[in-house]
Specification:
With 79 residues, the protein is an all-beta fold. The protein has one domain. It contains no helices and three strands. A three-stranded antiparallel sheet has the order 2-1-3, with no helix packed on it. The chain is elongated and about 50 Å long. 1% of the residues are buried.
């Protein structure tokens, strides 16, 4: 699963976007432990851990952002 965050200026225009891989579709876990999510399971971030961006975004109006699920795949677990 991937989510994309769209950062907006004070006019509501998107000025930057960042996509985060929240859950991997790989059968192997990566270094952060993101692997396939089993049906009915939950995935939560550790307390005080945040996804960040490298850009300063001086024109971003703090708090003015939207998030969209941009990739979501389902696997047939009965196969």
């Amino acid at each position: 699963m991937e989510a994309t965050v769209y950062f907006k200026n004070n006019k509501g225009n998107v000025i930057f976007e960042k996509t985060y891989a929240l859950v991997s579709d790989s059968t192997y876990f990566d270094l952060e432990g993101r692997g396939p999510l089993k049906p009915g399971y939950l995935k939560e971030m550790a307390r005080d851990k945040y996804y960040t961006i490298d850009s300063v975004l001086s024109e971003w109006e703090k708090g003015n952002a939207s998030i969209e699920i941009t990739k979501l795949e389902f696997v047939d677990t009965k196969a």
